[in-house]
């Protein structure tokens, strides 16, 4: 197995795991809960609490960044799976051709 195939296999595995996380009800509820709590706290800040508001806003943004990062792993995993399938087909065709050539 070539290094590229190993890297593709790792990417595929990460994609599967990321998809499992994104489909996990507890994790989704946790993201929703945290975002709701951060927004509630942000709305309840006083006028002079700009640092607190900024930190809460950043926390909300980070939740989205985490979800987008997981989604990118899912996408990369799907692409890697397709690349592995294509490589497997190419290797199979090459082996069949080599077998025919050596017999003939």
Short description:
With 104 residues, this protein is an all-alpha fold. 90% of the residues lie in helices and 0% in strands. α1 crosses α3 and α2 packs antiparallel against α3.
Number of domains: 1
- Counting H and I runs of at least 4 residues, what is the number of helices? 3
Mean pLDDT: 92
**Uncertain residue ranges:** none
* H and E string: HHH
Question: Using DSSP, what is the number of strands?
Answer: 0
Q: Give the percentage of residues in beta strands.
A: under 5%
- Share of residues in helices: over 70%
* Distance linking N and C termini: 28 Å
Classification by helices and strands = mainly alpha
Gross morphology: rod-shaped
Structural write-up:
The chain has 104 residues and is an all-alpha fold. It has one domain. 90% of the residues lie in helices and 0% in strands. Helix 1 (3-23) crosses helix 3 (50-103) and helix 2 (25-43) runs antiparallel to helix 3. The longest helix has 54 residues, at 50-103. The chain is rod-shaped. The model has no long low-confidence stretch (mean pLDDT 92).
Break the fold down into its secondary structure elements and pairings.
Blueprint: H1 3-23, H2 25-43, H3 50-103
Helix pairs in contact: 1-3, 2-3
